[in-house]
Amino acid sequence: MNERGSDYDVVTSVDLGWSPRNAGRTALACWRPGENPWWEVLEPGSMQDMLARLAPFRGERALVLLDIPLYGTEELSRERPFRPLDRALIACGIPLYPSWRAGSYGRELASAIGRLADGFEVVESYPNPVHRFMWLAQDEPGCLEGELRPIKALEDWRRRWPPAFKRGPLPERRKNLARLASVLARFLPGDYSSLVPGEESRGRELDRLGDVYDALVALRAGMEMARSSPWLLEARVEGHAGMIPLLADANLRVMWEAAIASTSGRSPRPAPLDAPSAAMLPGRTSDIAQRTLILL
Question: Per-residue pLDDT averaged across 118-140, rounded?
């Protein structure tokens, strides 16, 4: 993996539940430039547990990614469940839970982390699209290296999905988590064999492995953000709070621009010569995205 310079001393990714009631489902993954990532499951995983784990990073430039909506949820409701940023993600064929369910919990977490030290920057993460990028591009030589370019495998963005690992029969979840551990090894330095579930692994253990996997996937996007990588896409909607760091090749970047235009009513910038085919553009969303759009 190419080791570009980093704007941060440490990057931390936290996968957590969207309310204090789900505090037992908190996984944390960390990376320092030049080192392999490390991870742990916090028990019981409350806000105070997370703050205690982040406290040793005081005095350092720390990027903290939280897998929960942070900003722009103040005016949401059951009748108006999505932010403009969410609508743009949906237009790119990315399914997601309604952000109104997170309430103010994400903002409270971000504020508490910000009070730990001036050098902490807190941003929102979303593992799902990063996971899909890594799954589709895993066999592409030099992906995330060098200058931004189109990746052939990502032309199937709307047609191919990674294997499910959070739900389904236990044997299938075990097999899929093992396959996904190999994807981590492709995109992250280090050994991920400990994340391969055993033949007798049950639901709770598989849930925890899935949480760690999500934390590590979001960490990969955070690493690209720390390096100011050309493969980083800062997903945001102008005039609205919130940003999510994602991974994108040249064509996905064009698709994002078109999605922003479709949700904001403005015209997109002219597409380059290597723009994606019509099958990739927001007018042909996946079935999941179409079902979600009905809720808007």
Answer: 95
CA distance 296 to 293: 5
- Residue 4 maps to a domain: no
Is residue 119 within 8 Å of residue 106, measured between CB atoms? no
Quick check: is 204 in a domain? yes
Overall average pLDDT of the 255-270 stretch: 72
Alpha-carbon span 171 to 143, nearest angstrom: 31
Q: Residue 135 in 3-state DSSP?
A: helix
Cβ atoms of 132 and 181 within 8 Å: the answer is no
Q: Which residue range forms the structural domain that includes residue 77?
A: 10-293
Please indicate, yes or no, if residue 50 is contained in any of the structural domains: yes
Between 203-226 and 170-187, two packed helices, what is the crossing angle to 10 degrees? 20
Number of domains comprising the chain: 1
Residues 6+ apart with CB under 8 A from 190: 36, 37
List the structure tokens of 137: 């591009």
Q: Would you say residue 5 lies in a domain? A: no
